[in-house]
Amino acid sequence: MSATHYIRVEGVNMDPFILDTQDLSTIRGGGLLLLEAIQDLCDKYNGQSRPYLEPISTGASAGLFRFTGDTDAAKTLVEEIREWLNGHAYFQHATILVDSVPASAEGFVADRERLMARIRRRQLASPGLAVPTLVDAGTNGDTPAVCQIDGIRPAQGKPRKIKGEQRVLSRATEVRRGHGVDQKGIDERRVNFYQNLLRRDLEGQGNNGADQDKPPLSERINDERFARHFQDIAGSASFGPLNDKMAVLYLDGNGFTGIQRKQISAAIKTAIKKGQDKDQAAIKAQKDFDAEVKRTRAEFLKWLLEEAVEEANKRRWRVSPHDARQAKEQDEDEDERAPTGRLRLETLMWGGDEFMLVLPAWEGWAVAHQFLTQSAKWKIGNDPLHHALGLVFCGYKAPIHRVVALARELADLAKEDGMRGRKCSSLAYQVLESFDHLGNGAEDHLTALTLPGAETRHLILDVDGVEALSKHLPGLKAPDGLPQRQLKRMVRACFIARDLAQAGQTWKDLEFDGKATLEGLLHTLSDKAKTGSAAWFQGLYHLDQLWAYVAPEAEAEQASTQGDAA
Fold first, then answer.
1. Looking at the structure, do residues 558 and 409 belong to the same domain, yes or no?
2. Count of domains for the chain
3. Which residue range(s) make up the domain with 327?
4. Between the CA atoms of 513, 519, 524 and 527, what dihedral angle is there, to the nearest 10 degrees?
5. Distances from the Cα of 339 to the Cαs of 181, 428, 443, in angstroms?
6. Each residue's pLDDT tens digit, 234-266
7. Are 321 and 394 in a shared domain?
8. pTM for the whole thing?
9. Are residue 445 and residue 470 in the same domain, yes or no?
10. Exposed (0-12), middle (13-18) or buried (19+): which is 553, by Cβ within 10 Å?
11. pLDDT in the model for residue 186
12. Where is composition skewed (Basic and acidic residues) in this entry (predicted)?
């Protein structure tokens, strides 16, 4: 007897597939393969030569589908999908789980939750990474036994030149790395990841930005080349202290699950009132929610790519000949000019209500600010789409898995901010001058920084705080602005000596034209705390930490001007 069944396909244990190396192309390839697994499944089961799987919700590494058929057909289909994934040349190296449940009288929402629980149970019974097949693994002194990129899986095959060194890779790393290079290179066999995303999620809305005379953005990026290594993103001699530093920006929806449930619940109530199919209404609400979230993400990506490819921004976003890696540091399939002209941009994660970017350090703050500004207009129904942002500034050699974990932890702190919580978007950040582990974690680190009489929440920025810093810090950094020596003196008094009286005396003696601006900025950062109070002085932490990262072009221009004058 034909009935409705829900099938979920989800990539799990993703860190061992994406973040187990420091190699950017391998990380990129792993992330893109998980995205493609869901899309390829949709294309494969499109109802033409195989059963039809109706997509209900698709995200970064998961897909929820509806299938109509008898119980045996549903079981057969689930097994067929598992066999396809396990036998796929690429997807077999990831842990991708499949399960199903029949539709019940409890309705779509209960069935969806029950299906997710089945997947979680399967995940608990699965190994941390997909166990590789041992074929031609290194067994003699000339061939390493372990992959020289991921350091975990057996090495297989012949050595290849990667960043100037001969290395032997595991099959899983070879597949991921090869896919990561092809996906964003000039390769006719591949369709550019960004092109696909813009065309799919902004379909019918145009993606050519403000200039209607230009071809759509999805066409203009057709021949772009992207960074192969984190060094390509971070290496520049044009930004002084920010040279060789990058920004890892993690963005996560704040309270999206509640909004989704609200939309689905409202759709079900309306359907019942009108005598309509409540499951059909719930599924439509789910689809509409997903489509709107994807549209907003693509809208932001469009802005980001527009900025990156704009000729006027070439100095900021492209690898110059002066900054390019030397030939001895390149890969075997790169020519000597290969790094030159590449865009300094990478997406480590994309999909669902979260994504992660790697940017040059001198662009990290501006991109985070733009996202907060742009997302302030996003709504589903009457519910604003708030976000929590975690931003880490670090050197390009910092262990990426730790940096990613820190960015996520910071975003979670922004979500849990006691005063603001889920009522607005907020940003938590960390500057790592040289990579040091924060010990017990970001929360303990911020708690230790909190001044007696102040609150940790003042170390987390809301949209007003980000706006105020972007507006006023460039002027305070000007030659006739806030003397940095005086700023450092107050910061040491507050956060090292814990002597607010000393900081207060330094403030009293401080004289410069922008003192009133600085006082107002500290009021904004402390939620209007009294001048000279612990909460008010705590705002100095943001100035000290972000001095080099907010509007770094002003410093570069000043240095250039001073050099010309000399």
1. no
2. 3
3. 193-449
4. -170
5. 13, 32, 38
6. 988 788 899 999 999 999 999 899 999 999 999
7. yes
8. 0.88
9. no
10. middle
11. 38
12. 320-329
CA gap 44, 8 in Å, rounded: 15
User: Is 240 within a domain?
Assistant: yes
Alpha-carbon distance 482 to 487, whole Å?
7
Is the sign of the CA dihedral 27, 29, 33, 35 positive or negative?
A: positive
Please spell the DSSP secondary structure of 334-358, one letter per residue.
--TTTTTT-B--EEEEEETTEEEEE
Identity at 120, one-letter amino acid code:
R
Amino acid identity, position 443 = E
Cα–Cα distance, 128 to 373 (Å, whole number): 39
C-beta of residue 119 within 8 angstroms of C-beta of residue 100: no
The DSSP line for 22-40 is S-HHHHHHHHHHHHHHHHH
Write down the H helix ranges in 479-549: 484-495, 500-509, 515-525, 534-538, 540-546
Q: How far apart are the first and last CA of the chain?
A: 86
For 6, 41, 147, the CA distances from 58, given in Å and listed in that order, are 13, 11, 33
Q: Which residue has the tokens 């297989």?
A: 156
Nearest Cα residue to 99 out of 74, 72, 123, 119:
119
Tell me the CA distances in angstroms from 560 to 430, 554, 556, one per residue in order: 29, 10, 6
Structure tokens at 39: 């899309």
Is residue 400 within 8 A of residue 284, CB to CB? The reply is no
Cα–Cα dist 87/81, whole Å: 10
Nearest 5°: the CA angle 79, 65, 346 is 100
Would you give the DSSP letter of residue 132? P
pLDDT (tens digit, 9 = 90+) per residue, 54-110? Answer: 999 998 789 999 999 999 999 999 999 999 999 999 999 999 999 999 999 999 999
Q: What is the CATH number of the domain that holds 217?
A: 3.30.70.270
